Amino acid sequence: MNKTIFAIDLGNKAAKLIREGAEPISIPSRYIESTYVDGSNKFDFTAKIFMENVDVKKYKMVNQSNSYYFGKGINELGKDEYVRESFGVGKQRYEGEKFQNMLSFSICELASTFDEQIVEVDLVLGLPSEDYTEHNTKAILNYALGQHSVEIDGNTVNVDVKVVHLIPQPIGTFYNQLFNNEGEPINHEWIKQKTAIVDIGGLTKLFDQLQNFKMEETEREQKETGMWTLYSMISDLLVCDSSVKT
């Protein structure tokens, strides 16, 4: 019996999801409580129009009363004070409600087209290199293992995560370049040579080196700046320059 494997990289700016037989999905790591949209006047469009956006769905944990909009189209809301984002690193992020909600939403989204009442899967999660610590991995495993039940647009999706594989994000990048879809090496010279990997994310920059399939821990660096830092600098410059119309 073939295993069903889900792979998720829940970054600060985007959640990247993939499973065999489906196209990769990239969803902004932000969501909004449905009460701020449904029947409210907090945004300049109606809830009906919002509900018709095929790139946004309503998610609700079955054991919670609140529901949320989450999906590719969420950025159409703009940067509003009601939109929740999963910014952060380390212990505070992985034990927080926003990270855990988005992880459950992402797991169940990958299973949303399955026919089974309960979908059994192995889950692969990527972590920033310096977040790959005993405390962080324990916190993620405690939440990720077991059943996740989420209503997606009113349909309940149940997923039972049997095994969780946590890997540093650069390892995934390395494997993607080293192997083809059948797991066969296509860049044989990479197997023994030292390889440097730079991963620029929303809030972090990761610098790692690998040799013989092992991370060089003494050659590792993580900076708490990323693309969001660049966006903020550009925005600040535009605001300061009165000649630029935004």
TrEMBL record:
Keywords: Plasmid. InterPro entries: ALP_N, ATPase_NBD. The keyword Lyase does not apply. CDD domains: ASKHA_NBD_ParM_Psk41-like. SUPFAM superfamilies: Actin-like ATPase domain (SSF53067). Residues 7-172 form the Actin-like protein N-terminal domain. It comes from the Bacteria. This is Actin-like protein N-terminal domain-containing protein. It comes from Vagococcus xieshaowenii. The lineage of its organism: Bacteria, Bacillati, Bacillota, Bacilli, Lactobacillales.
